[in-house]
């Protein structure tokens, strides 16, 4: 009977320490941080990329899109409500939180909105203006992916 108790204690000790490891073990894994970024193996926590804020995105979109959308799409001022909002030009939502590739806004800005998967209509945005460059598109895609 005494041997069974020791066996159970030993088994319990093994189970309780099975998930433990040193820092080298945890450095192998990506780890999620409170503000939505992830630290990859060997990456300094100070260099983690943060998604742009709503204010940053609004500052980019307002001068380019506000001329047309200020009256017809007043939610430009309430950018935080865009996630899941339907589009009249596509079956895709304007912004699909966490995935720019399922967001109609992304396809309108790159000019492929009339092709699959968006299958939308209308002109590219910003209408009559220059297409967004890679840096501007990166702000939009990082924002959507960070929602």
Secondary structure elements and pairings:
Layout (H helix, E strand, L loop, with lengths): L1 H16 L5 H5 L3 E2 L5 E2 L14 H19 L31 H7 L23 H13 L1
Antiparallel strand pairs: 1-2
Helix pairs in contact: 3-5
Explain this structure.
The protein has 147 residues and is mainly alpha-helical. It has 2 domains: 22-49, no CATH class; 54-146, no CATH class. Helix content is 41%, strand content 3%. The protein has 5 helices and 2 strands, in the order ααββααα. It has helices spanning 2-17, 23-27, 54-72, 104-110, 134-146, and strands spanning 31-32, 38-39. It has a two-stranded antiparallel ribbon. α3 packs across α5. The longest helix has 19 residues, at 54-72. The protein is globular and about 80 Å long. The N and C termini lie far apart (58 Å).
């Amino acid at each position: 009977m005494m041997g069974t108790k020791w066996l159970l204690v030993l088994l319990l000790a093994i189970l309780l320490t099975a998930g433990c490891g040193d820092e080298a073990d945890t450095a192998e894994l990506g780890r999620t941080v409170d503000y939505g970024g992830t630290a990859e193996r060997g990456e300094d926590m100070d260099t983690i990329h943060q998604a742009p804020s709503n204010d940053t995105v609004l500052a980019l979109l307002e001068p380019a899109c506000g001329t047309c959308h200020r009256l017809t799409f007043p939610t430009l001022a309430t950018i935080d409500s865009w996630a899941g909002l339907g589009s009249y030009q596509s079956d895709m939502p304007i912004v699909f939180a966490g995935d720019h590739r399922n967001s109609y806004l992304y396809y309108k800005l790159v000019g492929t909105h009339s092709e699959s998967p968006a299958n939308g209509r209308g002109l590219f945005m910003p209408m009559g203006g220059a297409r967004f460059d890679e840096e501007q598109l990166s702000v939009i895609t990082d924002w959507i992916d960070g929602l």
